[in-house]
């Protein structure tokens, strides 16, 4: 299933060619498609999340996708502290990872792509006073942002949480 129009794909390819400097790895935690539904293991959004990431990763040689079955991949689940599906972990060399639960769509898709691009370029977007404040953090902090796909305000808050997570190794953001 094609999720982006030809024009969208062209624009994203151009954007990725210009903006991605370092390799990006998406680790998707999902379930295997099955005709048999096991109670407690349903994930109606998992196939769409996988389709979206496959389409995005096909737009640039710098974007890679690794798919984990949530119920089988116990060690990666522990490593990334994943407790819901679908979950997308975005990583790049030398940067903190970002975690997105659900399907990035609507306003959240732009937040998702922007976080990936900032991570790839090592861009820090916070004011110096904020960065200095973050340097005083001395223990792990997790920012959990609950969003809806059609909220501009939620998108702004999610973007700020991602910027904070990219700024300090003691801050993690879960959108």
What does this structure look like?
- This is Thioredoxin-like fold domain-containing protein.
- It comes from marine metagenome.
- By secondary structure, this protein is an alpha/beta fold.
- It has a domain at 6-124: Glutaredoxin, CATH 3.40.30.10.
- The chain is built from six helices and six strands, in the order H-E-H-E-H-E-E-H-H-E-H-E.
- The strands form two sheets. It has a four-stranded mixed sheet, sandwiched between helices.
- Strand 3 and strand 4 form a beta hairpin.
- The longest helix is centred in the C-terminal third of the chain and has 16 residues, at 152-167.
- It is globular and about 55 Å long.
- It starts with 5 loop residues before the first helix and ends with a strand.
- The mean pLDDT is 90.
Topology:
Blueprint: H1 6-19, E1 24-30, H2 46-57, E2 63-69, H3 74-80, E3 87-91, E4 98-101, H4 107-121, H5 128-134, E5 141-144, H6 152-167, E6 171-174
Parallel strand pairs: 1-2, 5-6
Antiparallel strand pairs: 1-3, 3-4
InterPro entries: Thioredoxin-like_sf
Protein name: Thioredoxin-like fold domain-containing protein
